[in-house]
Hints:
Elements: E1 2-6, E2 16-21, E3 26-33, H1 38-62, H2 71-96, E4 104-105, E5 107-113, E6 116-122, E7 126-131, E8 134-137, H3 144-150, H4 156-159, E9 181-186, E10 192-196, H5 198-201, H6 206-215, H7 220-233, E11 240-246
Antiparallel strand pairs: 1-11, 2-3, 3-4, 3-5, 5-6, 6-9, 7-8, 7-10, 10-11
Helix pairs in contact: 1-2, 6-7
Amino acid sequence: MVTRTDPGLVRGQNEDSVFADAELGLAILADGMGGYQAGEVASSMATELLSSGLARAFKACAAHTADPDTGQLFAERALLEQIAVVNSAIYSAAEGQSRFGGMGTTLVAAVFCDDLMVVAHIGDSRLYRLRGEQFVALTHDHSLLQEQLDCGEISAEEARYSVNRNLVTRAVGVDPEVEAELHWHSVYPGDVYLLCSDGLYDMLEKGEVQLVLERFGANLELAATQLLQLANDNGGDDNISVVVIKVLREFPAAPGRWAKLWSWFK
């Protein structure tokens, strides 16, 4: 797993936050929003609280091997519980300090266990998968723009230039409760996964991202660096963040046990 984040060429500060731990099989990306520094606070709280909360949950699960839940079911439950904790913490901080009023963050998180990936997302940060020659988005944006696309109000070409590009309909910490969208997917050796903020996909065509991952799939450090560079070369209008993951082998695990997901670091 490789993480990269960059402020871009226009924004004065970086409100994105990323986390990845191959030992835990966990990757998280958050894109904050709000007033001065509030977005940075929200995204940092999201990645720090969610990663630490999930690490504790995984450790507790491993200590109780009689847990009847499969890794997938446990991961789903843990994600929902810990996202609720994160949402409450950010909302309380915003309510308690006027300088943080209205802050919130998008969130996309992936847990790898038992040859599966459980994905939770809120907002318009995305997760993509490259498998062979197929490059697909595994998340569906919670945004006004996506709703307009879904109901046919605008075309994909019009969406590229829409003033509504960054208006999310769901975010962490904005309301007392938030609904995370969860999905799970089978994982195979050779798969490459990309978590990214809108600062990447707004600046690059989908085919450009795929080409980078195909060309540099054996060198995740270079792939991540190249993606950020291309986004900046195309304008760097927003903060740019990525988490790039390559699956090298199967990682089956017994219920209540967590397997390592190793990535290439070259």
